[in-house]
Design brief:
Number of strands: 0
Strand content: under 5%
Order of helices and strands: HHHHHHHHHHHHHHHHH
Distance between the termini: 48 Å
Helix content: over 70%
Structural class: mainly alpha
Radius of gyration: 36 Å
C-alpha cells in the first residue's frame, strides 16, 4: 500500500514537472507544500498535488502556487466541501474571469465562502454564474466582490439557478452598455446613461439609482413598458429584482463579500468532528506511507525497465528465428546479452533494496518493537497492581460483613466462604 501511494504521488509530481518545468528547489518546495498546507485541512498529499496540477494547467507557475495559490484553492475546497482539484478549478476560473493574480486566491476563496453564507447556495453555483457572465461583468467595471454581491442580491430576490441568473444579468449589462435601438431611445427619454461625460463606464449601482429615481413617478404600466424596451424579456428578470431590492441591498451584499478569513474559518470548523479528525489523520498517515514507499520506487522502476529490456530482447530473438537469420547462433547471442543485462540490473536493484532495509526500515521497525515491548510490560505490571487493590477491597468488605453478622449472632462461615470466592 505504501509503494502504491508513493507511486501515485510520484506520478502527479511527474505531471507537474512536465507541465511547468520547475527547478529542483521549486519542486522540493511544491512537494513540501502538498504536505504542510494540506494536512491541517485534512487533504492528503495526492489530492493536494492534484490541486497544484489544476493550478498549473491554468497557467500558474510553481512560484504562484507556492506563493498563495495552493493555500487559496485548498481553503476554498475545504469551505465548500469539494475535492482539492475542484477547488483549484473554481478558484482559477474566478481569478481568470476577473483578471486577478495568484496571491489573491485566498481572497477568491473568501468571496466564495461569503456568497454561500449570504445565500445558502454553494461554491459551484457561483462558479456557474461566473462562467455565464464573468467577462461581461468585468468589462462593465464590476470587481469580483461587486459581481458576487449582485449575484447574492439576485439569489435573495428569487433566482436559484445561478447560471440562469448570470445569463439574465449579462443581457442586462449589455442592454445598458450597448443597447439596441429601442432600448437606447428609452434610456435617452429617461435621461439615463451607463457612461459619464468622458465616455467612461459608470458604477452599476449609480446607473440603477438613476433609473429607479426616473421610474418612481411613472405608473406601473409605463414602468414595465420602458423596462421591457430597455432590457427585453430575459434581462427584465434581473433588472426588476435589482431595482426592487435597491442599490443599498447590493452595496450591503458587496460589503459582506469582502469579509476576510471566512474560507479558512469555515474549512477549519468543518473539521471539528470525528470525521474531520479522521480526515486529518488520513492526510498525516498518507504522508507516512509516501515517505516509506518512496525509497523503493527507483529500484522497482529499474526492475520494470530491466524486464522491459528482457522482453524486447526476447522479442528480437523470436523475430530472428522467424526470419531464419543466424538461427541458433544469433538466438544464443541474443539470449546471453539479455540474461547478462537482466542479471546485472537485478543485482543492482536488490543491493539497493537491502541498503534501504538496513538504513531505514530495520532501525524503524526495531524501535517500534522495543516501544511495544515496554508498553506490554507496563500494562502487565499495571494490571497486577490493579488486581491486588481490588482483592484488598473485597477482603475488607468480607471482614466488615462478618463483624456485622457476629453482632446479631448469625453464623457467618458459609457467607464468608462465598464472599472469599468472589474476592478470589
Amino acid at each position: 500500500a505504501s509503494v502504491k501511494t508513493a507511486a501515485q504521488f510520484e506520478q502527479v509530481l511527474a505531471d507537474i514537472r512536465a507541465l511547468t518545468q520547475p527547478t529542483a528547489e521549486q519542486l522540493r518546495q511544491l512537494t513540501a507544500a502538498t504536505f504542510d498546507i494540506g494536512k491541517p485541512l485534512g487533504v492528503g498529499a495526492r489530492d493536494a498535488a492534484g490541486a497544484v496540477l489544476e493550478l498549473n494547467r491554468a497557467g500558474l507557475s510553481a512560484a504562484d502556487v507556492i506563493g498563495g495559490g495552493l493555500k487559496g484553492a485548498l481553503e476554498l475546497a475545504g469551505a465548500a466541501g469539494i475535492t482539492a482539484a475542484e477547488g483549484g478549478k473554481l478558484a482559477v476560473s474566478a481569478m481568470t474571469a476577473f483578471g486577478l493574480q495568484a496571491p489573491q486566491l485566498s481572497t477568491v476563496a473568501d468571496v466564495f465562502a461569503n456568497f454561500s453564507n449570504k445565500t445558502f447556495l454553494g461554491a459551484q453555483d457561483l462558479s456557474l454564474a461566473i462562467a455565464a457572465v464573468g467577462p461581461v461583468a468585468r468589462d462593465a467595471g464590476l470587481s469580483l466582490e461587486q459581481f458576487t454581491g449582485t449575484m447574492a442580491t439576485l439569489a435573495q430576490g428569487g433566482f436559484k439557478n445561478m447560471s440562469d441568473a448570470g445569463t439574465s444579468l449579462k443581457t442586462m449589462l449589455l442592454s445598458l452598455t450597448a443597447p439596441v435601438e429601442t432600448g437606447a431611445k428609452a434610456l435617452k427619454a429617461l435621461n439615463v446613461s451607463a457612461f459619464d461625460g468622458a465616455g467612461q463606464m459608470r458604477p452599476l449601482n449609480d446607473v440603477l439609482k438613476d433609473l429607479k429615481s426616473k421610474l418612481v413617478d411613472l405608473t406601473p404600466q409605463a414602468q414595465k413598458q420602458l423596462l421591457r424596451q430597455i432590457f427585453g424579456q430575459d434581462a427584465l428578470r434581473a433588472a426588476q429584482i435589482l431595482l426592487r431590492e435597491g442599490p443599498k441591498a447590493i452595496e450591503a451584499n458587496t460589503e459582506a463579500m469582502k469579509k476576510q478569513g471566512e474560507a479558512a474559518r469555515v474549512a477549519r470548523e468543518r473539521l471539528e468532528s470525528l470525521q474531520g479528525a479522521g480526515k486529518q489523520f488520513g492526510a498525516a498517515f498518507e504522508q507516512v506511507k509516501i515517505q516509506i514507499g518512496t525509497p523503493f520506487l527507483a529500484a522497482l522502476a529499474a526492475i520494470v525497465r530491466g524486464a522491459t529490456q528482457a522482453v524486447e530482447a526476447f522479442s528480437g530473438m523470436i523475430t530472428l528465428s522467424q526470419e531464419g537469420k543466424g538461427a541458433f547462433g544469433q538466438l544464443a547471442d541474443s539470449a546471453r546479452t539479455a540474461m547478462t543485462g537482466l542479471g546485472s540490473i537485478v543485482t543492482t536493484v536488490f543491493a539497493g533494496i537491502r541498503a534501504v532495509w538496513d538504513s531505514v526500515l530495520y532501525p524503524v521497525l526495531k524501535v517500534l518493537w522495543e516501544v511495544w515491548t515496554v508498553i506490554q510490560t507496563a500494562a502487565t505490571v499495571a494490571l497486577g497492581i490493579l488486581l491486588n487493590v481490588v482483592n484488598g477491597v473485597f477482603q475488607g468488605v468480607i471482614a466488615a460483613i462478618g463483624s456485622l453478622l457476629s453482632a446479631f449472632g448469625v453464623g457467618q462461615g458459609g457467607i464468608t466462604l462465598s464472599l472469599q470466592g468472589i474476592a478470589d
